[in-house]
Amino acid sequence: MTDARTTVVVITHNRCAELLRTLDRLAELPERPAVIVTDNGSTDGTAAAVARHHPGVRLLRSGRNLGAVGRNLAVRQVTTPYVAFCDDDSWWAPGSLSGAADLLDRYPAVGSVTARILVEPEGTEDPIVEELRDSPVPRPDWLPGPALGSFLAAATVLRTDAFRAAGGFHPRLWLGGEEELLAADLAANGWWLTYAGQLTIHHHPSGVRDSTVRRSHGIRNTLWFTWLRRPVGPALRRTLHLARTVPRDTASLRAFAEATAALPWVLRERRVLPPEVEARLRALEPAQRDSTARSYTG
To answer: Is 49 helix (H, G, I), strand (E, B) or coil?
Structure first.
């Protein structure tokens, strides 16, 4: 079942054991995909361990922690038409990469396919799955699944050329909701994003993470995306909603301070989305307000 249509890209930073488990699982896939790992400046022996245990994996050493931009570095090396992302604590299920490639082959206007996420070790669905499955974004009749307004990088296969043309992940966002801006730019370029529940990725959340920092970055990046791409009215509504609903703590205060301090470059780079893409995002607003999976309270 070897399938040469897709390359898997993984970014990692100081999570050697989790990464080796992921690479073991990817090596067992029947598709036998090419794998590229960007080591974001790890100091725990990650690079040496990958070279020793998985010599067939292409290893890029960024020299410092670039966050999501580490994916951009890897995609520059991709020669396959499709690129699948996964994190160092997640892995694709057998057959899912081929299934995603089949969908992208069959539907030339689809730019990305997002899979169902199972949380390990219990094997339960991630709470975000229900929201993906019930996405309120209006969809054309031909689309093979629900239309999405964004995607989850660790569970998505994209067209390599579409990713590059949209500019990849913005270098300022680092990690934490960094997909929203790229997803909107993909849609502005004419691509549809869809969910495919028949595809699966497994996620075994790492214990080596700073959830407070990630939450702060998520709030900041949501504000930046909103100010960079949304019209004035929706941008103000979303900003005020966040100000009312995020926890009153240091992490939230830091997020708003960082976002506000960046207004000079945000305004320079501001480019409002086409009306048809903005309409998709407006359809998502009620679900986003009620979402527990997307909240910034955790």
So the answer is: helix
